[in-house]
């Protein structure tokens, strides 16, 4: 059971956004892309019992950690984690059928992965979400070409030093990518530690 300090800090604020944004009165299907340690999905599943959660990860060590969290909490509404590469088309996402998911959650991936993963996230979410389904992403972002405050500027610089394909993405840029897949930015929510939750709704392109 790996423990990420950031996940421990942000799991409750993100849960509050989910509780406000999704229907808690009927059965729902959720896919978490890039589940990390498993801290988030097991925390959300304990409160949002009406949702069947599908965790996923690219990193093998993280997959083992998710399974350790599942074994520890014994939650009936968390499925076994699947290996998922967000840069690949949804047909390679462990057999998830199109338009079968109510909620896709993606926490702290966009800025710490190549752009192909972000593009794949929106394309895939646009395919697997039901009409009116919700994609929630969380992390630090640039707004209208600007990164604020200084701590996020420094973070962006350190990311790009580690990997030139990483870095904070601009919300308007993400919105334009999302719209190509029928996902429209519905709400931006300010979160602790200069992060934001972005809520995208799947709408008809007609």
UniProtKB/TrEMBL annotation:
Organism superkingdom: Eukaryota
Pfam families named among the record's database cross-references: DUF938 (PF06080)
PANTHER family for the chain: METHYLTRANSFERASE-LIKE 26, UPF0585 PROTEIN CG18661
Family: Belongs to the UPF0585 family.
Name of the featured protein: Methyltransferase-like 26
Organism from which the protein derives: Eleginops maclovinus
Lineage: Eukaryota, Metazoa, Chordata, Craniata, Vertebrata
